[in-house]
Amino acid sequence: MPKVQKSGVSKNRLEALTDGIFAFALTVLVLTLDIPATAPSPPVPETLQGLLSGLLPDFLHYVLAFVILASFWVTHHQFFRRVGAIDRAYIWLTIIGLLFVALIPFSTNLAGTFDQYPLAAMFFEGNIFIVGVIFYAQWLYAAGGKRLLEAGTTPAEVELEKMRLLVMPLTSVAALMLAVTGSLWSSTLYLFTPFFYMWLQRPTEKE
Rounded to whole angstroms, how far apart are CA atoms 87 and 99? Predict the structure, then answer.
């Protein structure tokens, strides 16, 4: 049975809520791909080509956000399996993190619709940064004095999870710095995050 702290909520229920929010956000992302209402019916080939070209920024941000959310979900699963107990503080840290996870479809739509404005990209990247920082704070709280960790979790495992959880915030900082300079492609940095995660996973392949 999962350990339960004073919160009275089991680890499994919190994990189910987290999975549900991630599943919702991943599904809603596709709604950011809007077909203009002015498109002729039936569309002629030339018009359809122009329509698809216009949707390219939206599609790019859809792919980016999907990869980011999937990376967050995998990372959360990896560190949450080492958490043996939860308390009220941890539950609320998780809920605050999920608040910003559920916001990602909106920030994705904003960045895709206003792709010519660095401020829209900065809003998207800031959203990702906040989620990454809150997940990192969750791990620091759980690992501090090993207050919530499973017995047998080693210091090396604690440090490895810290490194994994820093990937997204650090990538967001780099992307925000590019956006400040006026770059319209700052968000593409997130395409490299899965490779960082795979590189960090190598030491634990035998687990």
Answer: 19
What would the pLDDT profile of 7-20 be if each residue is shown by its tens digit? 567 888 999 999 99
Query: Which ranges constitute the DSSP H helices of the chain?
Result: 11-28, 45-54, 56-80, 88-113, 118-143, 155-180, 193-201
pTM of the model: 0.84
Provide the phi-psi class of 85: left if phi over 0, else alpha when psi is between -120 and 50, else beta: beta
The residues with which 83 forms a beta bridge, in sequence order, are 149
pLDDT < 50 positions in the chain: 1-4, 203-207
Token look-up 């739509």 returns: 109
Other C-beta atoms closer than 10 Å to the C-beta of 22 total: 20
Q: Is the dihedral of CA 97, 73, 155, 166 positive or negative?
A: negative
Query: At 106, phi and psi to the nearest 5?
Result: -65, -50
Question: Tokens standing for 56?
Answer: 């390219």
3-state secondary structure of 83: strand
Q: Any bridge partners for residue 149, and if so which?
A: 83
pLDDT at 101: 96
Residue with tokens 């939206």: 58
- Distance of alpha carbon 189 from alpha carbon 71, whole angstroms: 14
Cα separation, 104 vs 123, in Å, equals 10
Model pLDDT, residue 151: 83
The whole-angstrom separation of Cα 164 and Cα 83 is 16
